[in-house]
Structure prediction request, 201 residues.
Amino acid sequence: MVDAANSRFDCIEGNAGLISTDSPDKPVVFWAYYSDYCSGWSLAKCDDGNYYCEYAEACQADIISSLDGSITDGICGSIYFTTEEMFELGKDADHWIYPGPNWDETYENNKKLLNKMKSVKNEQVFDYLGTSQSGWFEQRLAQYYDVLDDFCTIVGTTSIFDRERVFFRNVFTEPIGAMGQCVDPNASLILNDNTNCIPGK
Prediction:
C-alpha cells in the first residue's frame, strides 16, 4: 500500500511536469488563512520546508511565501500578517487555498477588500472542508497523493480523472463535504479509490 501510494504521488507529479510544458507561465497560489485565536493572517512559509510548498513545486506552481508579517508579539509565538499586508501579497494570485474552517466569517468581515483580489473575483478560493474538517485532519496524511492531486487540479496541471477533488472545495460553488461511512476498516485506501494515475496522461 505504501508503494502504491508513493507510485501514485510520483505519477501525478510527473504528469504535472509534462502538462506544464504547454504553458509559458506558472500558476501562482496564495496559501493563507485568518486565525481568530491569533488575530492575524497565517501565510505560507517555505523556508521551513512545509508540505504545501513541496506540493506547489510538484504541481509546477509558484506559491507566495513570506516571513515579513508585522504581528510577531502575539500569543501564538509566530509570524502573522495584518489584513492589509495579506492583501498586498496575495491580491494578484491566480488561486487561493484557504487552509482553515472559517472562510465564510472571514469573508463577511473583510468583503470589501477581499473582493478586489484576483482569486476572489474569479471564484478560485478553496478551503479544506471537502471531506469536513475531521476528514482533513484524519485522512490527508494517509491520502497525501489525493492532496497533491487536488492541488494540481486547482492550478490546472493534472490529468482529467473521473473523480472530484477530495479535500479542497471551492468556497463559492461547493458545499462542505462529509467523511462518509467506513464499511470495511481493513480495505486499502488505494484500492477503494477508483481513480488511476496513468503516466504521461
